[in-house]
Amino acid sequence: MELMKIDDCTRHQPEEYRLRIIWATANSIASYSYATVHVAARASAPPRNVEDYMREHEEASRNIQQYLSNPINAYLLVKRLTTDWRRVEELITEDVGKAFVANITNSRSDLKFPTEEDLNGAAVALMRLQDTYKLETAQVARGVLNGVQYSTGLSAGDCFELGRQSYNNGDYYHTVLWMQEAMDRMQEEQNHTSVSKPDILEYLAFSTYMQGNVVRALSMTNELLDIVPTHQRALGNRAYYQEEIQKKTNESRKKRGEDGSEDSVPPNPSFTVTEKRMKSVSEMTERERYEMLCRGDIKMPLSIQKELRCRYVDRGIPYLKIGPLKEEEAYLEPRIVIYHDVIYDDEIETIKRMAQPRFRRATVQNYKTGELEIANYRISKSAWLQEHEHHHIRAVSQRVELMTSLSIDTAEELQVVNYGIGGHYEPHFDFARREEKNAFKSLGTGNRISTVLYYMSDVEQGGGTVFTRINVSLWPKKGTAAVWHNLKPNGEGDYMTRHAACPVLTGSKWVANKWLHERGQEFLRPCTLENQSADVDDGRY
């Protein structure tokens, strides 16, 4: 019997689509025979009986999209087909026979097995979500995200793998968090675990040292050597830690003087205890504000809220007299508005269907060279669609003119973007700044004067659009569009429009961008002499 073949063409597909293909691979393997499921159940940690394994598989199969929209499930799926699968292959060799393993091995070119890079990406995405949304490690390990139970949780082995991936990335902070959680889970699982205490202690001790706690690292290393007295790396590390502690002790003695008295002037016995003051929003770094805005922790002042209005808009256009735009003001200076019910389900499905085969990793423009390149601060898939390709694309693009009162003759093509689990775009400007001399040069249409951002999906948690200089958060709502001008009336960039796409916590975020350029807008949005001075990017952001 041959395994079902799956076309290996997903490298440039949206994350949701890639995970579906990976699921199909898992489904093909799991359904190959009862023996496979039996072995997979034995390979899991802690071991589970076949009925439990099949029950989870059936529950996931009933709604694959919902199952894969959970970052914990996404990570587990990739892990099961990378590190866990190697163990499955070993057990299959023991239980079923080499022919079965050979069949699967030969089918790797047909089946879309995830790679170590996929596993690392899933782990990094989970860490990003943990940091941005302040998720407790223990809660994530139990399958709880922001107080909602989404999955059955992680085993000690799953937590260990998250710690190992963090360690490989040089991220010792998360290594400590997840190795400690692996230790806690291992104790709960007792003997039913695939990871050993010495392995955890080795990673935990060194990462603790790298975090600056030498004494704690030495204590963990001693605990490791109590279990494995001949552990060579631990023996070497213990000697090094002891030497480091001795150096610090000697330095401390030198500061105190040979007679043990202080060299410096004795401190004043009178003292006051100062309570640590909370930072105000204006004192926070942009990163702190960005994460708070993504969590919805920064609220708009009532003094600003009371000035915002909702209205029906027809702009004197006969077409809009019949069906006016539903306009909601989100901010006044700069003016950011939300238009409701401006993109429809059939249009969204057409756009998604046409974009998926063209998806590529989204790029950013290098401000020095003007070249497009991949960057870790933008994780998403994007594609470009032209108006002539489908009447739905044309309708969505032309609707931009109704919302902005500007021409789309010099606008860029419709950019479709999918943000999967952990997908994000850190704070940036849509317009080109003065030092970005080569930006949009090839287009010959000037700078980006305005942005129209269509939301083509609801997002269960996360995925907001936040403006970090004015502390505004917009939340995705299917069928709406956010609109703002990137340039002031005098053509200078409006630095208050700096914005970001928050990581998707659960679900999948689909958007479409339409960027309008300066050329062709001379009579539609005439230049003025007001606000002639340019904003200054003072480097704090």
Automatic annotation (TrEMBL):
The keyword Cytoplasm does not apply. Residues 248-259 have a biased composition (Basic and acidic residues). It comes from the Eukaryota. Keywords: Dioxygenase, Endoplasmic reticulum, Glycoprotein, Iron, Metal-binding, Oxidoreductase, Vitamin C. Residues 248-275 are annotated as: Disordered. Residues 410-518 form the Fe2OG dioxygenase domain. InterPro entries: Oxoglu/Fe-dep_dioxygenase_dom (IPR005123), P4H_N (IPR013547), P4HA-like (IPR045054), Pro_4_hyd_alph (IPR006620), Pro_4_hyd_alph_FE2OG_OXY (IPR044862), TPR-like_helical_dom_sf (IPR011990), TPR_P4H (IPR059068). It is an enzyme of class 1 (oxidoreductase). Its EC number is 1.14.11.2. One of its GO terms (molecular function) is L-ascorbic acid binding. PROSITE patterns: FE2OG_OXY. It is found in: Endoplasmic reticulum lumen. Its cofactor is L-ascorbate. GO terms for cellular component: endoplasmic reticulum lumen. SMART domains: P4Hc. Gene3D superfamilies: 6.10.140.1460, q2cbj1_9rhob like domain, Tetratricopeptide repeat domain. Signal peptide: none annotated. The keyword Iron applies. Catalyzes the post-translational formation of 4-hydroxyproline in -Xaa-Pro-Gly- sequences in collagens and other proteins. Belongs to the P4HA family. This is procollagen-proline 4-dioxygenase. It comes from Trichogramma kaykai.
